[in-house]
Amino acid sequence: MTTATPHRIVVVGNGIAGLTASDSLRTAGFDGELTIIGDEYHPPYSRPALSKAALLDDGEMTSHHLPAPTHEASEILGVSASSLDTDNKVVGLADGSEVPYDALVIASGSRARRLGSGDAGEAERELTLRTLDDALVLRQRIATQPSVVVLGGGALGMEIASGCLDAGCAVTLVSSDPPLVRQLGSHLSEYFLAAARRRGLTIATSPAREVHHREAHSRVVLADGSSLEAELVISAVGDLPNTEWLQSSGLLLGAALRVDSRGRVAPDIVAAGDVAAFPTARGIRRVPLWTSAIEQSKVAALTLVRGNDAPELSFQPYFWTEQFGLSLKASGYLPLAGDPEVLEGDLREDKALLRWSHDDGTGTAVAINYRIPIPKLRRLSSALAAAVSPAA
Ligand SMILES: Cc1cc2nc3c(=O)[nH]c(=O)nc-3n(C[C@H](O)[C@H](O)[C@H](O)COP(=O)(O)OP(=O)(O)OC[C@H]3O[C@@H](n4cnc5c(N)ncnc54)[C@H](O)[C@@H]3O)c2cc1C
Fold this sequence. Notes:
The protein contains nine helices and 27 strands. It has 392 residues and is of the alpha/beta class. The C terminus is likely disordered.
């Protein structure tokens, strides 16, 4: 079904998905009214930079800056969308106003999950890192070199731990599994763990049960009965999609917002980025990663302009992280089972190009401290590329 090009498009969410969708709408020729609603006051910024260079920048923080947008949309910033009426095609805002649309892009992203209640007092003691404002607070707090406990052994927890160590803090990371094992598999988890320990990270592999905040210290009680004291507790225990404002819209399946292979939720509504669960070769799922948000948004925007003539999403997973002096880029599905084929270099020298093959015939290429353009890494990751040499 090809829908008539809408006159008014509203985008909810001013992160990379909202930005990319808006720019892509213009590139695809949409010249009608474009309105972006975002609850942060800041222009879009690079969220991945917040746990990497931004924690280390000595002077003015600039690593999160993005190029200026080209969409020339009207922006309503610092206010949340609080409801969606799909019958009357209206987005309700928290300040009581309403914004009508002909077509809607849902790009409201996700937020940090918390272990505690998240009420004001507790949120101050259990820091998370999701927004630019969070990063500014965290930078200020770690500048005084407090003792730190990081809860969560995923990529974000490990990046935060790395940044805190570099800032001179004593850091213990609490993780229910060996850190990064669920994200990268045991081969690379062990490799990163060795680098982290060399830099001074202490690791406790037992789930955190309770966190008690006292005057100047917090106490983290672990499932194995032991406890840790620290001046600062930072949690990195996953994210939750921002779908509450869609509660009465009839678009949710439980708390999940599912889209089809063109990003469509309903005929005039698309969704993209961390908020959306989309069809992948491994099932319908959210893939809360930067390039995933960009790819989804481009497809979703084209769908609003071209309907079924828009191409379906051909999703190619891409992930990167920087921590403990190492950079990793991975093209293909994660985590990785077994040992890799070494295409170039040697992990023992902290520079290598590796490839894993999966049972379904796909592959994952991983570059460690290795400069390689993304398209080339993608070529190496595909099973067909088994014959492609790294020099090609
Ligand atoms: C610290 C950190 C490091 C990361 N590092 C990496 C990395 O190295 N590699 C990688 O691939 N990915 C990384 N990610 C993930 C990546 O940043 C996200 O996948 C990406 O930012 C998702 O973009 P998005 O636009 O979908 O959502 P978001 O960036 O969450 O943007 C959504 C925007 O919508 C706003 N919003 C929410 N609800 C409403 C509402 N009701 N009304 C109006 N506005 C609303 C939000 O405040 C936000 O500004 C990292 C994430 C974090 C937090």
